[in-house]
Amino acid sequence: MPFSLLRRRRAVSGGSSDDSSSDPSLRWVVWLAVLLAVVALHWVAGRWVERSRSTSNPTPAEHVPVQVELLTPKPVAQTPTPPASPPPAPRPRPKPAPQPQPTHAITTAQQTEQAVQAVEAAQAEQAAQAEQAAQAAQAAQASAKAASDAAAAQAAAASQAAAAPADKFSVPPSGELRYDTRINGVMNQVGTIHWINDGQHYEMVVSIPLPFVGPYVYSSKGHTDRFGLAPEQYSEQRGRRAADITVFDRTTKQLVYTRTPNNQPLADGAQDRFSVVMQLSSLVRGTPDTYKPGVARQFSVADNDSNEIWPIETVGDENVQTADGNVQARHFTRLPRRDGDRRRLDIWLAPALGWLPVRILQTEPNGMQIEMLWRGKLQPPSVTPDQSGAGTPNASDNSTPGTPGSDKP
């Protein structure tokens, strides 16, 4: 009897345990807890992304161009051509030496004949001298007319130059520029612009790190000529891919690409995708009052496989929020080149930074946005008296390389 009761109690206890493990309400409680945990994790991730995307510099709204003036590329300095020297006047012929008179006696007939010959020779000499004098007068008149025409042409050229003065141009001094970068609004690593200007040559290397892809590196190097910056080679490397190179062959006036066999003509003042930023900065440094809202300037810009005209318009002065504080900057935007053009470039140049770019926002055709925002103290790498003013009319600025911009106090 006791054994049967014990077996019955064990059976009852075992049955209750199995019932509890297969209870559907308990399983719903477990699944609900898992669901709540997943939702909580998603909420935390969303908040982190939202905080990373938050910025005081909103994406520029779609700009409707209101064109006031269109500026086309023209030389930044011109040397007048000296007038041609007038041709020399012909020299008069020397008079023939008098013939010695014979010492022996001559007859009257011979004397008469010699007298006639002497008179004829004198008349011929007078005619020759008169002809030479006429030729000299004509040459002098032609020379005076050529000099007058040259003077008139030089005066007309000077008058035309005064009516349409050459662009003032001031290339920014050398410096290592550091920028906070954002990819599609999400904070990324620090990017750099390596800029060197020795007065005759320049080099620009833009490096933007991208996670899991590798850095985007854009390189431009060349010299300065009468149109400003003159690139010689442009290189574009995205991540671990091989670099695409564009050569500006100024001997044959051709653009040569490694990405495509199709060459294109090289225009005067042509730029690449990143030298155009410093070309614009140099022009604005020269005459900042010229670039008012609504003024658009055309640039011939080469990519890694093509060349197009970029109209860049002045939008206006705006406030830009940086890590070191607010700064006033002039906003420039590249207008669409054709219908459906989704590529966009917005540049903010700050007078407090010597008209260097304080913010660059590049929108790719696929919608990807790459932003560079000035990182460091709000002063240019090398401070000179004219960097925040109108600049100088020189073709370049030989300022001493300055201290790299940094976020150190």
How many beta strands in the DSSP annotation? 16
Poorly predicted spans: 15-20, 77-84, 384-409
Structural class: alpha+beta
Gyration radius from CA atoms, angstroms: 41 Å
General form:
elongated
Largest sheet composition: 16 strands, mixed
H/E element order: HHEHEEEEEEEEEHEEEEEE
Portion of residues in helices? 25-40%
Determine the N-to-C terminus distance: 92 Å
Number of helices: 4
Question: Mean pLDDT score, rounded?
Answer: 77
Q: What percent strand?
A: 25-35%
Quick rundown:
Keywords: Membrane, Transmembrane, Transmembrane helix. With about 400 residues, the protein is α+β, with helices and mostly antiparallel strands.
Could you describe the 3D structure shown?
With 409 residues, the chain is of the alpha+beta class. It has a domain at 69-76 and 168-374. 29% of the residues lie in helices and 30% in strands. It has a 16-stranded mixed sheet that branches. The longest helix is centred in the first third of the chain and has 56 residues, at 108-163. It is elongated and about 165 Å long. The protein starts with a helix and ends in a 35-residue tail after the last strand.
